[in-house]
Amino acid sequence: MTDLFDTAKKKLAAFAEEKELKQKLIDFGDTAVQSALRGALKLVSDKTIPYLNRYDNTGYLEGSGYFLSEPAPGAAWRAGFAKSSILPERVQGDLYLGGYLNFPPNKVSGYMTDLLVRAFAFDDGTDRGIHVFAVIDCIGISNTDVRAIRGRLKPLIEEKNIVSVNISATHCHSGVDTLGVWGDLTAALRKNPGAVKSRKTLPNAVSGRNPDFMAYLTETAAETIEAAVNGMQPGSLSWAKLDCADFVRDKRPPYVTDNNITLLRFTPEDTAEKKLMAVFMAAHPCCYGQKHTLVSADFPLFICETLEKAGYEAAFFQGAQAAVAADRGKFVKDALTNHQGIVNYGRSIAEYILSADESVFQPVAPMLNVTVKETLIPADNALLALLGKLHIVTNQLVKVTRGDDGKDYELYFPTEIGLAEFGKSLTFAMIPGELMPEIAFGGTLEAEASYTGKAWNYPPLKTAAKGHFAVIGLCNDCIAYIVPDNDFGSVFAPLHYEEAVSAGRRTGSNIAGAFLRAAAAAEKTRIDPASVKGAEE
Prior knowledge:
This protein has 537 residues and is an alpha+beta fold. It contains ten helices and 22 strands. The strands form six sheets. Strands 1, 4, 5, 6, 8, 10, 11, 13 and 15 form a nine-stranded mixed beta sheet that branches. Strands 16, 17, 18, 19 and 21 form a five-stranded mixed beta sheet that branches. Helix 2 packs across helix 5. The longest helix is centred in the N-terminal third of the chain and has 42 residues, at 2-43. The relative contact order is 0.16. Mean pLDDT is 92; it is low at 11-16.
């Protein structure tokens, strides 16, 4: 027995040693790649990147300014909704599909479905302002483009007292490239260094983003938001949560998912008007696969279409879906084509929502608190920094000096993070990327099981929430994957693909810290609701 025990112990030790050696080799390869990319990064001119003290944050909206602890006297909900196609009739130049990296890149060959922007406008009947929550059928949208839409809305913002405009993406992988990563990267790497250096030719920088398409998207999104605001009407708000464990699966340890579909329903006082339904769910809309070249909004569209046939106006908002996939196994019959299976999956989710008993919906008191804070994310991943520096993507970079001479600097991505409270029963975190669910809901890996062997020292984001908690992902920016620092590993390691398109190993702690600080700061602003005026006073 002793011999067997000793043999087992030796085998375990040998396995641990082999695993450690493999990780060292993997980490060495990762370091070598990052070093090469940092070398390339230094060769690209930094003249187009401002220092932090010269960064122009025009277009930033902070939200409510202060929070209420109870609804104000006479408070009452108003809401509006509008939707529009973002596909122009004609576009100069090529369109690329956003979501899968291919060589040569996936050019759009046709249209399977429409792509839409959908917008809700809410206020709680006080003078604290209107809040907009919009979502676009696309892979993601940068904060630069979000602020361009807000800029187009500036007269309306001032006229109507709009205090936050929050724009997110469904993250469909079969929409038009709105970020720039999925175009002709070979041409971009060849031509853009010169364009950046001269600055005069910068408008001709190569990117997967089509300028005509993006101009149309900006204009259409602004017009849609304007229509939602102008169409606001009185009514009541309710919310519900439904278990969705059968619809989703996580592909990466520690295998945490948001197992709730969160629903926000507005019922107008005018019974002739349609009810509004916002669906919040975390799952990747990437069902069509790597070689697909037809534009489609994927399963979120079929959720919305089914709800619309039942008499609602509806929108789908993406959640904390970092490595979370749509689990279509139970909803795709063998006789169906892939497209038919995707349609059936979306319809099944909508039918599940429609089958919910009315008793699951709870009233939401008329009180809307929103805070949006700017924060800086270190551009530790040289690949993403290079894409930004070459203007392949439009994510803003800033230089933050280190040292006394001011010549040495680090690159950061300015971004936004937010929190929205609907009544006292529902809180949303507005996260500017693809969040690992364990950061939001708990269950991060313990030190010994993590890639770095260290602990994650932040409480789950939900601990800062009032009532039920959900995430609106890819909101007001797209800084890609947000991974807990302690499990940020090499892209060459199994189950660590997400690190390739993350801002870097400090992103998780920076996002978590920024959100928790924003929530704590908002808590300190709460005032007596009796002093708040009505919107019409």
